[in-house]
Amino acid sequence: MNDSLYDEYLKIFKEKKIKLTNVRQSILKILSTRRHFTVNELISELENEIENVNIMSVYNNIDLLLELHLLFANTINGKQIIYEAISPQLTHLKCHKCGKFDHIASSSLDNELLLHLKRITESIDFDLEHFKLELHGLCSDCKK
């Protein structure tokens, strides 16, 4: 688990005076350990930790996290929704042949992009807080 991310989530909930239920804490722990997840994957992990998972509670918590801007929802091929924790920069790679979906993990690239995008958005009087970029092409396996 990414303790600093989990602690950051707890701090936000406390600042906003949002009750930290057992389900909510478990969801935040999972969110701080997973790069991407679907609702079904989240429910499966919760069922390993908690007896009697209320599915509606899971959906309500996802809605809350989206509303608090702590979670991104990514739609893959217009069908599947994959969630992930928000970070200041998200750069995804999507293979259009096999459908593989992954991150570029490069803080120097992300910082360069952020600076460039901030210059662009400032020129139109827009304050950029974070960005999500999706690049499409062929993964190394599909190129073989």
Automatic annotation (TrEMBL):
It comes from the Bacteria. GO terms for biological process: negative regulation of DNA-templated transcription; regulation of secondary metabolite biosynthetic process. InterPro entries: FUR, Fur_C, WH-like_DNA-bd_sf, WH_DNA-bd_sf. Zn(2+) binds at residues 95, 98, 139, 142. It comes from Spiroplasma helicoides. Its cofactor is Zn(2+). Belongs to the Fur family. Keywords: DNA-binding, Metal-binding, Repressor, Transcription, Transcription regulation, Zinc. The keyword Repressor applies. GO terms for molecular function: DNA-binding transcription factor activity; transcription cis-regulatory region binding; zinc ion binding. It holds the Pfam family FUR. This is Fur family transcriptional regulator. Signal peptide: none annotated.
